[in-house]
């Protein structure tokens, strides 16, 4: 057995070390000190996946050490996980070990929790899930008070729901989010909240000139996590996302938060570049009049690969670029071209994954 614990005494120094490395890496483009947004030192992860290791007829949670993918180690505590996750983990494991139907050929367990106290547990199998499994899983669901989801090859068994409900308090207002299992959500809830608050602050009144009549374009909007709280800073907002699940969630979240100035369309960043350049029309934009927008700001939060060359050239036309990145290396590559037209006015470090080398950044770039 092992306890997955971290040395919280080291955290302040680790964060400072990250800030120093980031400052050095970005020194070619800015003299600004990064604004630091620390994570809670423990219980910061809202979602996690564990391998289920079977030995001697007993199932245990297991993880892999970095670089050792064939040597799982068994854990019985996961202090970086949310408090709710840590409450649920032993209860789920006990139920699995008390039921051959739940334990047999179970190879993974996923926990998705929220700051507002909701949870979803996904059990993943190397077998077909039948009605007997469903009955056992329903019993466990009743015991836990939270939904269970079953998955196996080409099979998804939803007993109650396949999502959690999150509520985030941002600048005195509460925003509601439906977060669907399997789609992207921010793993660190407090850092997510800090990121939204920083982005709202960086947007100011929406256009930077005081009259508040600018519009926002967001690429890679996901379920509307950033889009919805930012919408009140702008006259109109157009957001794009390629995932159908995320688009559907975003549209539900827009309605649930009673946002009336925001439209989401299912387009990739490359497709939107073609659309705004009038290279070709898209039926998905049939109800959107692109010429009616006065885009003052573009928000991009791309995957680790960063912005492709055409998208990078397209966003460089905007007066203000809000660029949130989960990979400083590709953001730095994009800055080689973006800083030809823009200067960096805000610079932030979001410590999404403390005790690791991972760093996430936020930049506000303004036209020179």
TrEMBL record:
<keyword id="KW-0489">Methyltransferase</keyword>
<dbReference type="GO" id="GO:0019843">
    <property type="term" value="F:rRNA binding"/>
</dbReference>
<feature type="binding site">
    <location>
        <position position="241"/>
    </location>
    <ligand>
        <name>S-adenosyl-L-methionine</name>
    </ligand>
</feature>
<feature type="binding site">
    <location>
        <position position="186"/>
    </location>
    <ligand>
        <name>S-adenosyl-L-methionine</name>
    </ligand>
</feature>
<dbReference type="Pfam" id="PF05958">
    <property type="entry name" value="tRNA_U5-meth_tr"/>
</dbReference>
<dbReference type="InterPro" id="IPR010280">
    <property type="entry name" value="U5_MeTrfase_fam"/>
</dbReference>
<keyword id="KW-0819">tRNA processing</keyword>
<dbReference type="GO" id="GO:0005829">
    <property type="term" value="C:cytosol"/>
</dbReference>
<protein>
    <recommendedName>
        <fullName>tRNA/tmRNA (uracil-C(5))-methyltransferase</fullName>
        <ecNumber>2.1.1.35</ecNumber>
    </recommendedName>
</protein>
<comment type="function">
    <text>Dual-specificity methyltransferase that catalyzes the formation of 5-methyluridine at position 54 (m5U54) in all tRNAs, and that of position 341 (m5U341) in tmRNA (transfer-mRNA).</text>
</comment>
<dbReference type="GO" id="GO:0000049">
    <property type="term" value="F:tRNA binding"/>
</dbReference>
<feature type="binding site">
    <location>
        <position position="220"/>
    </location>
    <ligand>
        <name>S-adenosyl-L-methionine</name>
    </ligand>
</feature>
<feature type="active site">
    <location>
        <position position="326"/>
    </location>
</feature>
<feature type="binding site">
    <location>
        <position position="301"/>
    </location>
    <ligand>
        <name>S-adenosyl-L-methionine</name>
    </ligand>
</feature>
<dbReference type="InterPro" id="IPR030390">
    <property type="entry name" value="MeTrfase_TrmA_AS"/>
</dbReference>
<feature type="active site" description="Nucleophile">
    <location>
        <position position="326"/>
    </location>
</feature>
<feature type="binding site">
    <location>
        <position position="225"/>
    </location>
    <ligand>
        <name>S-adenosyl-L-methionine</name>
    </ligand>
</feature>
<keyword id="KW-0808">Transferase</keyword>
<dbReference type="InterPro" id="IPR030391">
    <property type="entry name" value="MeTrfase_TrmA_CS"/>
</dbReference>
<dbReference type="InterPro" id="IPR011869">
    <property type="entry name" value="TrmA_MeTrfase"/>
</dbReference>
<dbReference type="GO" id="GO:0030488">
    <property type="term" value="P:tRNA methylation"/>
</dbReference>
<dbReference type="GO" id="GO:0030697">
    <property type="term" value="F:tRNA (uracil(54)-C5)-methyltransferase activity, S-adenosyl methionine-dependent"/>
</dbReference>
<dbReference type="InterPro" id="IPR029063">
    <property type="entry name" value="SAM-dependent_MTases_sf"/>
</dbReference>
<feature type="active site" description="Proton acceptor">
    <location>
        <position position="360"/>
    </location>
</feature>
<comment type="similarity">
    <text>Belongs to the class I-like SAM-binding methyltransferase superfamily. RNA M5U methyltransferase family. TrmA subfamily.</text>
</comment>
<keyword id="KW-0949">S-adenosyl-L-methionine</keyword>
